[in-house]
Each structure stands twice: as structure tokens, then as C-alpha cells.
Amino acid sequence: MNVLLENLQSDVLNRNVKISILSCFGDIAMAIGPAFEPYLAATMGVLRQAGAVQPNPLDIDLVEYVGNLRDGILEAVRRRRPLPSLF
User: Binning pLDDT at 50, 70 and 90, where does residue 87 land?
Assistant: First the structure.
């Protein structure tokens, strides 16, 4: 998880790979269940930050990227099953 979170901060990594990283957070949460709890706050913070990105409406590529980014966020949240002690 730490490596994935670090990769999201990379200036070198392709931004489309970052979308895939966001999407896989939900898969990881489902796979390890309650053991995901230590990563929940950091993950949700990253997802909130990514969801707050506002593209320049005149930059079609950026608008498309932000749409894909939001899809990745929704995939991450949709795949994560709630932890009973937190929700």
C-alpha cells in the first residue's frame, strides 16, 4: 500500500497508471478485509483529493482525464466493502 501511495505522488509515473492505482485500492480492501483499516484514512484522503481536481473546461484532454480519474475513484469506493467498526 505504501508503494502505491508513493507512486501516486510521482511526477514521472504516467497519470493513467495513477488511475489504475486508485481503482485497485478497493480490490485490496476486499482482499484483506479488516486488515485494510490502517490504510483507510490515507486511502480516503487520496480519493477525496483526487475527486477535488477541477479541469480547465477548454482543455479537452484534461477534461477526459478527470472523467477517467473520477471513474477510478468510484471503482475504488464501490469495490471496498465496509468495515463494520468504521461504518
Answer: very low
Q: Which of 28, 76, 24, 81 is closest to 48 using CA atoms?
A: 76
* pLDDT per position as a tens digit, 47-82: 888 889 899 999 999 999 999 888 888 888 776 555
- Domain holding 18, by residue range, is 2-79
State which amino acid sits at residue 57. P
Task: Please report whether residue 87 resides in a domain.
Answer: no
* The residue type at 87: F
Cα(29)–Cα(78) distance, integer angstroms: 11
For residue 19, CA distances in Å to 7, 14, 29, 57, 76 come to 11, 9, 17, 20, 10
Question: How many domains does the chain divide into?
Answer: 1
